[in-house]
Amino acid sequence: MRILHVAHQQWRNYGDTRVSWAQKLLHGLIRCGYQVRPFGDRDTAAFLAPLGIRQLGERAANRALLQTVEAYQPDLVIVGHCPAITNTTLEAMRQRCPAVTIAVCNNDPLFVPENAARIAQRCTVADAIFVSTGAPELRRFSGQRARLWHMPNPVDPAVERADCSQRETFDHDLLFCSKSNDLTERGKLVAGLREALAGELRFHTPGSFGVPGVWGRHYDDTLAVSKMGLNLNRQEGWHWYASARMAQMGGNGLLLFTHADAHFDSLFPEETLVYFRELEDLKRAVMRFHHDDDLRRHYAANTRHFFHTEMNIDLYARYIVEASLGLHWSHDYAWLEHARA
Fold first, then answer.
1. What does the alpha-carbon distance between residue 337 and residue 263 come to, in Å, rounded to a whole number?
2. Chain centre to alpha carbon of residue 136
């Protein structure tokens, strides 16, 4: 099977890359034995643009993508966050490759109006759309061409390599990484927690409260020496929605605190994630696990094991291919109960 993977490949970041679900998907597709050709939409636009100004090269990037489709004749095209790739281009793919299936993957939250609009727009041309929010939230987009599916945040054994559940010494007792303040009030929760825990443990907040952010290798190194992590979204209460940091922390064996209103208790086994609703809940939970290291290691190890056995990039890639093409499931995927809207 030939797959064309269109996404932000981060070629021009020259090693200082963010942990990317799109790159994990590429790795998973290759590990599963598919013939995969990556196409970097943003980098191609910059390469083809006058003076390297990406926006000036977007039309040329669309033409280059169609040229690639015509030459490669893919069975499946998977398109990530590529706003510069137009629906007209996706429709034109079928003229050049009539048997092609087009799938779109979107890992951004639905509470961002621009992102919800992008999903609705793609529903008119894609055959399948995968969103990192549970299927009950996706029904609003039903009625167009696309079949709507949930997709989880996966771990990559080559990326999430640390196992903090087995460590005894750490540089940071609690970790929260974020730099975004749009459409959120989570900063108030983090500030309240910092104040409540002052002097009790080492709370590291890269990207917030004047602490420099960490990227690439420095982010990996930070995760590897952290004991517990906060999985705080900009808004809570969206079914099975979490940012990619959930897999990054959980896959590296950090004990993970997450909001109960996302209903991850219907996806994750017992004694994995630690749930809270209010600041006081979170404070009590943090202190409980901080002072009971056997319990912390037990929960963190269970979480890491679940991510690496049931939400790894191999299963992630196979699921997206099978759902896109309407194939029989090759695995009893943990998220199938709320997979399709």
1. 13
2. 19
Across-strand partners of 257?
230, 274
Q: What residue type is 96 in one-letter code? A: R
Q: Which domain holds residue 26?
A: 2-154+312-338
Beta bridge partners of 76: 3, 101
Residues 26-82: tens digit of each pLDDT:
999 999 999 999 999 999 999 999 988 999 999 999 999 999 999 999 999 999 999
159 within some domain: no
Cβ contact 3:29 at 8 Å: yes
Task: Give me the amino acid identity at 97.
Answer: C
Count of structural domains, the chain:
2
Q: Which domain CATH number covers 301?
A: 3.40.50.2000
Residue at 261: amino acid letter: D
pLDDT digits (tens, 9 = 90+) for 5-20: 999 988 888 877 777 8
* pLDDT computed for residue 9 by the predictor: 87
- CATH number at 29 reads 3.40.50.11010
231 and 276 part of one domain: yes
* Token couple for 283: 């404070």
195 and 274 inside one domain: yes
Could you please report the per-residue DSSP string of 78-113?
A: EE-S-TTS-HHHHHHHHHHSTT-EEEEEE-S-TTSH
Closest CA to 248 of 5, 11, 18: 18
Task: State the angle between helix axes of 186-197 and 279-291 in degrees (0 to 180), rounded to the nearest 10.
Answer: 50
